[in-house]
Each structure stands twice: as structure tokens, then as C-alpha cells.
UniProtKB/TrEMBL annotation:
The keyword Transcription regulation applies. It holds the Pfam family PAS. It comes from Romboutsia sedimentorum. Keywords: ATP-binding, Nucleotide-binding, Transcription, Transcription regulation. Residues 151-379 form the Sigma-54 factor interaction domain. The lineage of its organism: Bacteria, Bacillati, Bacillota, Clostridia, Peptostreptococcales. Residues 6-54 form the PAS domain. InterPro entries: AAA+_ATPase, AAA_lid_NorR, Homeodomain-like_sf, HTH_Fis, P-loop_NTPase, PAS, PAS-like_dom_sf, PAS_fold. The keyword Ribonucleoprotein does not apply. It comes from the Bacteria. This is Sigma 54-interacting transcriptional regulator.
Length: 464
């Protein structure tokens, strides 16, 4: 009876996941073929299950089948990008993990797990084409980015960042920029580029967290026809940014294996397209950004030390908005001016209590959150000329300490801030309960000691 329940549970799991599952036995017959795989390949399950796999292969050549390769070679094929035509003739892109299934020493079949990347691949190809056409030298492109005049702020902290950035624009050295989300990392990056000798050349930005490793590698370094199933000859962003600047946003999200290839390009000045053998010289100035403290990403192993030191030739830290004093009001007035034009309003100023409310807010989303707040507030106003405290659309985060409960409106501060605050309180309470014993507190929280120590450091929690 237990085996029947176990089998039913496994079947439910297989059919409920988004990834496609395809299992063939040692003779090449399909034994498992879930709904996600059927939807991906536009096949009817009854036309596939319990039939020889070679009989259902139509548009894809047998020699390209990773399932059959694994069945023959008994070796894993990991993170394999594959393009092929489904039953309806539509090209699909998948990332596959294919492994032999061995019980004891006996091969019983091969299992493939496929993730549908068709939409993401189409989007990435469109991005590459747009960037390639935008920065084609024959087009004589206009500069569409920001410069230092666009940076608003009189506080000592932001002025220090601007001063370092201006010096960086006179150099070709790599730059590492750290700042919380919404602080203006790309604005600083573009200002460096457009104030440099590379200003007439391409500035290209790529978010390293936006795509999986297999696709990001092709976007950065390009692809060669035949490099993988369905690959075409296409230059990557390094080639497109030649003589210009490439911004790698959220470098802390780039997979470590890809970081090693990036390091090679930075050290040698050459790229090799995915699937290619030819080294291509590129002259690209790289600016990398991170929204996490560099010390933390190093200690957590999110970035290779050798890559970190190669990127961190010039280091720029952008202060969070809450540490910029009167810049909050300077920026607010600038956004009021901007949205007066856009919304056909005539707001002249902010009342004193409104100013106090803006200054007292935490601004987890920094300048981006401030702009959205002003835009939202002005959108709800009628013919008023003064932006008052009540009109400023900030939903405050509140804590009921007496009942140890948190009351958060749906539009309150971002979830990560709320979670972090609750996490900090739980850690303190666990330490109190454990009489300051970190090991016992970790057990209470269900964490390992090292993880708890990291979180204590993160929240600046100290114990004697």
C-alpha cells in the first residue's frame, strides 16, 4: 500500500512542475512524459508514451538528441541550450539537464529535465539586434544617456561620489559601483562614459540577473553557428561595445563559472564566441555594479576574489537617499518640476509638514521610490498649488510593539525591508531566550551557527 501511495505522490509531483520531464528506458522507449513537456513540444502524450523515442523524433535529427547521447555514453549533459522545432513547426529554445539513470551498476534509462526558455531567448535576441543596430557606427548615433549635470545633490556624500566618478571618466580603468537599489548606479555609469574619451562610442548595459547563465554567456560573448543546436553567428555585447563602455549591472548575480570567463576577457582583451575557436580582440571599458555590499558578496562567495580585485580598480559608493539630508527636498522639487509638465499641474512648493514627512521616511527604494512617490501624489491632486503632508502618498510601516504584531498596508515599504526588520527582532529574541548562547539561538531559529553569525553581522547585532 505504501508503494502505491509513494508512486501516486511521485506522479503528482511530476505532473505539477513547470519543467518538462522525459524519461526513456534502456531500449529507448518513453516511460515518463509529463504535461509540461507535452505542452512544450505540442505533442499528444498518447503518441509518445510507451513508444520508441526515435519514432516520435520528427524535425530534430536523431544525432542531436541529448537523451540518446546520454543513453549511449552514460554521461551527464548539464545546462545544454537547445533549439528545435516542435510538432507545429514552431522553434523552441530549452535549457536541458540530461542524466543516465543507473541502479546498482545497471543502466535503466535516461532522464531529461527541460526548462522552456523560448520567450527569454527571443527577447535576448531582440535586445542584441536593437543594441547592434543602435550602435552601428554608420548610423552616427546621438548620445541618449545621462551626464554629470543630471545628478542632483549638494550633500557631502553624493558630492564625494561625483568627484570620484569625474576622475574615473579620465581613465580607462575598470570601475566597481556599489549602491542600494534606486540610488542611481546607471546614471553614474553613463555620466562616466559620456564624460570620457569614449563618449562617441557605444554605451551598452546588461543586467546580469535578468537571464540564466547559458543565455547570458551567448549575449556577452556571442555565438557561432553550430556551437549548439540552433545557434547562429552573432556578435556578443563585448564586440558591440568595442571602443566603448559595457555596464554589467548586478555583477553579484553572475554565475561563478561565467565570472571566470569574464575575468579572462578583462585580463587578455579577447573574447571567444560560444562554440567558436577564434579569439576576437575587443577594446571595452567595463563598469560593474552591485546592490549588495562588496564585503558581503565576497564573504558569501557570490563573486570570485580575482574578479573582484580586477574590477575594483576604481571603487565608487553611492550613498542611500536617507543619508543625503536636504537632497531629498532638492530632488522632490526637481520631480515636481518634471511632473508639472507631464501632468499639466502647477505645484509650486511643499509645505513644512510635508517636508518633514519626506525627510523622516526611510526610502528603502531611494531616489526611484522618491520619484514614484512624488508622481503618485501629484497624480491624485486637483488644482492645489501646495503639496501638503496629507497629499504625500506614503503608506507608513507600523509596529505594534505591545502585541508583537506587524501591521503593513498593501502599499507599505518593500517586502525585503519588512522581512529584514522582523528577522532582526527574531534573532534578538532568540539570543535573549538562549542567554546569549549563539549555538543555542541558532538551534532555536533553525539555522546553522555560521549562518546566524553572518546575520548578526549583517544587522550589527553584538553580544558580550
Amino acid at each position: 500500500m505504501k508503494e502505491e501511495i509513494y508512486s501516486e505522490v511521485i506522479e503528482k509531483i511530476i505532473e505539477s512542475i513547470d519543467e518538462g520531464i522525459h524519461f526513456i528506458d534502456k531500449d529507448g522507449n518513453t516511460i515518463i512524459y509529463n504535461n509540461s513537456m507535452a505542452k512544450l513540444e505540442q505533442m499528444d502524450k498518447k503518441d509518445v508514451l510507451n513508444k520508441p523515442f526515435v519514432d516520435v523524433l520528427q524535425s530534430m535529427e536523431i544525432k542531436n538528441s541529448t537523451l540518446l547521447k546520454v543513453l549511449k555514453n552514460k554521461k551527464d549533459i548539464k545546462d545544454n541550450v537547445q533549439k528545435y522545432l516542435n510538432k507545429d513547426g514552431k522553434e523552441i529554445t530549452t535549457i536541458n539537464n540530461t542524466v543516465p539513470i543507473v541502479v546498482g551498476e545497471k543502466l535503466i534509462g535516461a532522464l531529461e529535465v527541460s526548462k522552456n526558455m523560448t520567450q527569454i531567448q527571443m527577447l535576448s535576441e531582440q535586445i542584441l539586434k536593437l543594441k547592434e543596430s543602435k550602435f552601428n557606427k554608420s548610423n552616427n548615433p546621438e548620445k541618449l544617456g545621462y551626464n554629470f549635470d543630471d545628478i542632483i545633490g549638494e550633500s557631502e556624500s553624493i558630492q564625494k561620489s561625483i568627484k570620484i566618478s569625474k576622475k574615473a571618466s579620465k581613465s580607462d580603468a575598470t570601475v566597481l559601483i556599489y549602491g542600494e537599489t534606486g540610488t542611481g548606479k546607471e546614471l553614474i555609469s553613463q555620466s562616466i562614459h559620456y564624460d570620457s574619451k569614449r563618449c562617441d562610442q557605444p554605451f551598452i548595459a546588461q543586467n546580469c540577473a535578468a537571464l540564466p547563465e547559458s543565455l547570458l554567456e551567448g549575449i556577452l560573448f556571442g555565438t557561432v553557428k553550430g556551437g549548439f543546436t540552433g545557434a547562429v553567428d552573432r556578435p556578443g555585447l563585448f564586440e558591440q561595445a568595442n571602443k566603448g563602455t559595457l555596464l554589467l549591472d548586478e555583477i553579484n548575480s553572475m554565475p561563478l563559472q561565467l565570472q571566470a570567463k569574464l575575468l579572462r576577457v578583462l585580463q587578455e582583451g579577447y573574447v571567444r564566441r560560444v562554440g567558436g575557436t577564434k579569439d576576437i580582440y575587443v577594446d571595452v571599458r567595463v563598469i560593474a555594479t552591485t546592490n549588495e555590499n562588496p564585503i558581503d558578496i565576497l564573504s558569501e562567495g557570490k563573486i570570485r576574489k580575482d574578479l573582484y580585485y580586477r574590477l575594483n580598480v576604481i571603487y565608487i559608493q553611492i550613498p542611500p537617499l536617507r543619508e543625503r539630508g536636504n537632497d531629498i527636498i532638492l530632488l522632490s522639487n526637481k520631480f515636481i518640476e518634471k511632473y508639472n509638465k507631464k501632468l499639466s499641474k502647477s505645484i509650486k512648493s511643499i509645505c513644512d509638514m510635508g517636508i518633514k514627512k519626506l525627510r523622516n521616511h526611510y526610502w528603502q527604494g531611494n531616489v526611484r521610490e522618491l520619484e514614484n512617490t512624488i508622481y503618485s501624489s501629484m497624480s491624485m491632486m486637483d488644482d492645489e498649488e501646495i503639496l501638503t503632508e496629507d497629499m504625500i502618498n506614503i503608506n507608513e510601516y507600523k509596529t505594534n510593539v505591545a502585541e508583537n504584531m506587524y501591521v503593513v498596508d498593501i502599499d507599505a515599504r518593500p517586502l525585503d525591508w519588512v522581512v529584514a526588520d522582523i528577522e532582526e527582532r527574531y534573532i534578538n529574541e532568540a539570543l535573549n531566550k538562549a542567554n546569549e548562547n549563539v549555538t543555542k539561538a541558532a538551534a532555536i531559529l533553525g539555522l546553522c551557527r555560521q549562518n546566524l553569525q553572518y546575520k548578526m553581522k549583517k544587522y550589527n547585532i553584538t553580544r558580550k
